[in-house]
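Before relying on records like the one below, remember that each one covers exactly one chain. Contacts with other chains, cofactors or solvent are not represented anywhere in the record.
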Amino acid sequence: MAYGEPPHAEFFIGPFHRLTKDVLGSDQRLAKFTQGFDLILEDTTFQMYSPNRLKQVEFVTQHLKKGGIFVFVEKFRGVDEGDYQRREYQKDYGFKARYFPQEEIDRKKTAVLGTMFNNEATLEEMARAVRAQFKHCVMTWNSGNFCSLAASNSKENLDLYVSQMPGPAIPHEYVYEAGIFPASTIVMKEVPL
């Protein structure tokens, strides 16, 4: 906002589930979104409420325009608990320790990470939830136990979105999912994530 208000953007302060069609239609600033959004970004939010990605993705997708793109940034529960924990140690002691004092890292573990962990889904569970709503999905980024996925029913829109992204700037030792860039969309009905 320091550079002025973006001309085609609005900001709604509140939980997404309160952003109903009625609320959108009754607010002059938000009325232009009653037909849906071109892009929805979920950034580590689902895991603060529930592990039920199927219902969460279904609920939010109703607000996406046909051909819109849904971007998910999630921390995923590992299939192998040992691998999951090693990635957590790497993040805490190899990355966060460069930028945060240990007390702050410990405080976040106590205040946030318990809730987050209990509501994490596996990448396979997320793939099933995304597959139920979308034909195409691509992983655009991963680091440690985190991944970013972009999904759409429009391969063209998703390909255009991905084509505008530079490669992820992540040290190789933090990348655990192979073949994410250059990204190309996959058909969700035929191929799992």
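The helical segments are 21-26, 53-61, 81-99, 102-118, 123-131, 155-163.
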